[in-house]
Design brief:
- The chain is mainly β.
- The protein has 4 domains: 176 residues, no CATH class; 155 residues, Glucose Permease (Domain IIA) (Distorted Sandwich), CATH 2.70.70; 114 residues, Chondroitinase Ac, Chain A, domain 3, CATH 2.60.220.30; 85 residues, Immunoglobulin-like (Sandwich), CATH 2.60.40.3780.
- 4% of the residues lie in helices and 43% in strands.
- The chain is built from 3 helices and 48 strands.
- The strands form 9 sheets. Strands 2, 5, 6, 7, 8, 9, 10, 11, 12, 13, 14 and 23 form a 12-stranded antiparallel β-sheet that branches. Strands 17, 18, 19, 21, 22, 26 and 27 form a 7-stranded mixed β-sheet that branches.
- A hairpin with a 2-residue loop joins strand 45 and strand 46.
- The radius of gyration is 27 Å and the shape is flat.
- This is M23 family metallopeptidase.
Length: 562
């Protein structure tokens, strides 16, 4: 397709679908799920680690145990109790085809709390995922369903609130449903970046452009680009009226007045949410904690309901004329910011070369070193990369293999890949059962008990970094915060868990021979005293059995009085 000045736009191979009209969703059907004004700590579509934020984070004034109420009539269709993720969560299905989700709760309403507790004791299992029929727990709009909290993967007291399509389970931007959250502030732009799209967006990487405010708009000096094929990305936030840095709802990129790319975050499914890693400059996000969003589509991104332009945003320059660029950013309320600038291709710029040893999107690949092998699926990468895989000597006494270096943790992987590592010595059958694969991502670690495949250990991961086989013969343990036989005056018992390698994957507590309901709170185990251990009931024996990732089992006994 020819444009002015012989400018060519490369058309994207897939066309997204977006629902941009807010009136497609029922307005004012759902009420505020809190009894205090709605204030956002995070909005729908905000950038998170390996996913889009899938709902609204509502502030609870740094408090816990505020009443959480049903946003509309319906019935409790599901609850979850889990260590990370949502923590304690309630799902309410409504007759209009939507389901609302309320997460990080402390307690459910009395009848539901009793049901869940009874189920936990019956199953002898704290974590639960229970579905209900419409007749079991019907609720009315405004009815208290829980108390707010800080459970699961929460960094502070708040309520996570979602609206989902009941049939598809897609999460829909709750701000499209007409909630009254005043907002008169337009998004703020703090950075513009361009990429040489002859190569991967990872190499050579982003070229920063200084942005300055010009009246009510933003601008830059004329951008001299050194490639005939480029794309843009923008660093911007939506402050709303509440001080928190929220994510951008909608963006458009225009070249010489023509729309060449746009995104709008109206709905995302949990199956697709990891594609966020291909919508941002992942290197800058993981390394520098900067949220920079691409105004183009990477070839390995297959995210529905996001790009509505039908084009991939890559600009092909066939001349050295000056071309105009306009970037328009909007929030749900229509507050708008514009960045206007100009670009020119410098034909005399030095040529850049890139290695042809690539892992490419939509192509599976197996890569080997002497003692290791990685198998990447066709969906593994969003953009081409010069994949680097090497071996280093073992780093400690527990290591029983070389350390395998896989690229860098600053490059994303979309799905799980298979990694096989060969030990550097023969192992007995007993030792083989104690082998784990330890993966180091730089700022955190993960350990998996892999399975044996011939003379190698095999495991699956979905991030790059360094991996090594360890022989783990350490016992997991818990430590009590009281002396043996002590009289406990508090309302809880707390045990701190320790596993030198990996995690405690199984925990069982028995009080005087009967299972006791301990909750998992990060690395601790907490029991809130109930009728299973009344006051004045004498000396109790608490037997705790833990199992770690390698399968090592430890049983400990503690005594106390109540």
């Amino acid at each position: 397709m020819k444009l002015f000045h012989k400018l060519t736009i490369i058309v994207c191979s897939f066309i997204g679908i977006v629902i941009s009209a807010q009136n497609n969703y029922p307005q004012n059907y759902f009420r505020n799920p809190l009894n205090i004004p709605m204030q956002l700590a995070a909005n729908f579509g905000a950038v998170r680690s390996n996913h889009f934020h899938m709902g609204l984070d509502l502030r609870t004034n740094s408090q816990e145990n505020l009443p959480v109420v049903a946003a509309a009539d319906g019935y409790v269709s599901r609850i979850k109790v889990e260590r990370y993720g949502f923590g304690n969560a309630v799902y309410i299905t409504h007759p209009n085809g939507y389901t609302t989700v309320y997460a990080h709760l402390n307690k459910y309403f009395p009848g539901l709390e009793d049901y869940v507790k009874e189920r936990q004791y019956k199953d002898e299992k704290w974590e639960q995922d229970i579905n209900f029929s419409p007749s079991q727990f019907p609720v009315t709009k405004g009815q208290t369903i829980a108390l707010s909290g800080n459970t699961g993967g929460s960094a502070g007291p708040h309520l996570h609130f979602e609206i989902r399509d009941t049939k598809t389970e897609e999460c829909i931007n709750p701000l499209l449903f007409g909630f009254n959250i005043p907002d008169r502030m337009a998004p703020a732009v703090s950075g513009l970046y361009w990429y040489d799209r002859r190569f991967s967006t990872y190499e050579p990487g982003a070229n920063g452009v200084a942005v300055k405010k010009a009246g009510s708009a933003y601008t830059t000096d004329i951008i001299q680009v050194t490639s005939p094929e480029i794309s843009f990305a923008v660093k911007a936030t939506d402050k709303a009226n509440q001080g928190f840095s929220l994510g951008i709802y909608q963006a458009e990129l225009l070249l010489d007045g023509r729309l060449i790319y746009s995104f709008s975050i109206d709905k995302v499914s949990y199956d697709d949410t990891r594609y966020q890693n291909g919508c941002i400059d992942y290197i800058r996000f993981s390394r520098d904690k900067m949220s920079i969003q691409h105004l183009s589509a990477l070839p390995g991104v297959k995210l529905k309901n996001y790009n509505s332009s039908g084009q991939n945003g890559i600009i092909h320059l066939e001349d050295d004329s000056i071309h105009s660029i306009e970037i328009i950013l909007k929030d749900v309320n229509g507050n708008t910011s514009k960045l206007v600038t100009k670009i020119r291709y410098d034909r005399n710029s030095p040529q850049v070369t890139s290695s042809d040893k690539l892992v490419k999107p939509n192509e599976g690949k197996i890569i080997r070193t002497e003692n290791a092998e990685i198998a990447l699926s066709k969906n593994a990468v969003y953009d081409a990369m010069n994949f680097k895989m090497s071996e280093n000597p073992a780093f400690n006494a527990q290591s029983i293999s070389n350390t395998i270096v896989l690229q860098t943790s600053y490059i994303p992987v979309h799905d799980k890949y298979t990694l096989k590592i060969k030990p550097n010595r023969k192992l007995s059958s007993e030792e083989k059962n104690k082998v784990v694969m330890l993966f180091d991502y730089g700022n955190d670690r993960d350990a998996v008990k892999g399975k044996w495949s011939g003379d190698r250990v095999e495991a699956e991961f979905n991030r790059f970094g360094t991996a090594v086989l360890l022989l783990d013969e350490n016992l997991p343990s818990v430590s009590a915060g009281w002396k043996e036989g002590a009289l406990i005056g508090s309302s809880t018992l707390r045990l701190k868990g320790t596993a030198k390698v990996g995690d405690i994957v199984s925990f069982r507590a028995e009080l005087d021979g009967k299972w006791l309901r301990f909750a998992r709170v990060k690395d601790d185990f907490v029991y809130v005293f109930d009728e299973k251990c009344p006051k004045g009931s004498g000396l109790h024996t608490l037997k705790v059995t833990t199992i770690n990732t390698a399968g090592n089992t430890n049983t400990q006994t503690f005594t106390f009085q109540r």
